[in-house]
Amino acid sequence: MKQHDAMYIDGSWRPAAGGGTIEVVNPADEQVIATVPAGSAADVDAAVHAARAALPGWAATPPGERADRLAALHGRLTARADEIAGTVTAELGAPLAFSQAVHAGVPLAVCASYAELARTYAFEEKIGNSTVLHEPVGVVGAITPWNYPLHQIVAKVAPALAAGCTVVLKPAEDTPLVARLFAECVDEAGIPAGVFNLVTGLGPVAGQALAAHEGVDLVSFTGSTAVGRRIGALAGAEVKRVALELGGKSANVILPGADLARAVAVGVANVMANSGQTCSAWTRMLVHKDSYAEAVELAAAAAAKYVPGERVGPLVNARQQGRVRGYIEQGIAQGARVVAGGPEALEGPGYYVRPTVFADVTPEMGIAQEEIFGPVLALLEYEDEDDAVRIANGTVYGLAGAVWAGDDATAAAFARRLDTGQVDINGGRFNPLAPFGGYKQSGIGRELGPHGLTEYLQTKSLQF
Ligand code: NAP
Ligand code: MG
């Protein structure tokens, strides 16, 4: 077991001001694999001061040089990709192949995209007799969750650095090890001291101190709606910028004429990936009444192939495991029918939950409204297209979704009626440059690509 006793502040690893530690647990076998320091408000303060001191120099660094540093960071992350995948598997529990392809692979693509954008983005434009400057927002406080731990770090830090901002990161307490690895890569990439700082710690202590710090100009948060609401309120009181990536309850709408077998198989795979711990997961499958019974059978058969410990990993911790099993019990109590999986415990160790499919789900049920964040799929039946739109839009969330039809034009026409930030048409591929973010209570702001970069910029107009 590794006992880490330092945090990355102002370009070096220094001991925490407080004395507490956080245990990092492997959720597949429940063993403690490491400890990291529990940062305090004093540590956050030191990190924010370092970020403020580094801001003028980094903001004035030509974008092409910032691009060079990001390219070097991409090189370091690439060189350590296997270590990244192994670390995420150890602290999150994701199967190694998924960690390699997604937990390591996606952040590499995103980091590369921001090295490129830093080089090519028009940080100055002309509008009539004005020159408009797109300047960095300032010091960014980034607070990230554990479900895609490196992706969520890179999706904030890379655009912030590309924009000329400096950053203090507070990663999730469950997955601090890949955050440490990222900080090592930042250091190896020659990014100047203070431009990026890492404070590990607990949300209500270090996270709260960072969100409330007067030296932070923008708080970028990804996580639960409950915490996001509090961070938004704090930021509002201080007239501080805020970006929130929150929960989802996305709909996978299968229209008549679609390839039902493919739509169901891809839909089940989407929910089971990362043990269902994906904010954009298509956790509601909406099927026309004429195809509903067949879809239920297909979904149950598909889910049965997700064997816990093989194709599907554990949940991140015991609390999430208990929460998800509680939702499965609630679904049964409210009259939904389990056609795969169920709430029963699996042989330990490990925080596993049975991949579960519910039929006979109605739109007002808790399992059709709330983010479960586990391998649980709800199948709902609709009468016609208007009914499907009403059901799909009938939650407080609007993060992602999918539409399947006999042709792309029909699916796209339906997608225009959805109140949601992203829709995949007939199995459209993930695009790391496409703006990602929520309608309604799924959040404020967009991440990834050029839209993600503008979150970290503010505009100044010079009139000539
Ligand atoms: P969370 O508490 O919102 O955690 C997200 C981040 O915020 C973590 O770094 C957390 O630190 C920090 N945090 C917690 N309380 C804070 C506070 N008062 N001030 C500032 N920062 C704070 O989420 P969770 O408890 O890990 O998960 C609960 C549920 O949230 C899940 O079941 C799921 O529904 C949802 N969730 C959504 C996403 C998403 O991608 N949208 C990601 C994760 C979870 P700690 O790690 O110390 O708690
Ligand atoms: Mg929490």
Automatic annotation (TrEMBL):
<protein>
    <submittedName>
        <fullName>Aldehyde dehydrogenase</fullName>
    </submittedName>
</protein>
<feature type="active site">
    <location>
        <position position="245"/>
    </location>
</feature>
<keyword id="KW-0560">Oxidoreductase</keyword>
<dbReference type="InterPro" id="IPR016162">
    <property type="entry name" value="Ald_DH_N"/>
</dbReference>
<feature type="domain" description="Aldehyde dehydrogenase">
    <location>
        <begin position="13"/>
        <end position="461"/>
    </location>
</feature>
<dbReference type="Pfam" id="PF00171">
    <property type="entry name" value="Aldedh"/>
</dbReference>
<comment type="similarity">
    <text>Belongs to the aldehyde dehydrogenase family.</text>
</comment>
<dbReference type="InterPro" id="IPR015590">
    <property type="entry name" value="Aldehyde_DH_dom"/>
</dbReference>
<dbReference type="InterPro" id="IPR029510">
    <property type="entry name" value="Ald_DH_CS_GLU"/>
</dbReference>
<dbReference type="InterPro" id="IPR016163">
    <property type="entry name" value="Ald_DH_C"/>
</dbReference>
<dbReference type="InterPro" id="IPR016161">
    <property type="entry name" value="Ald_DH/histidinol_DH"/>
</dbReference>
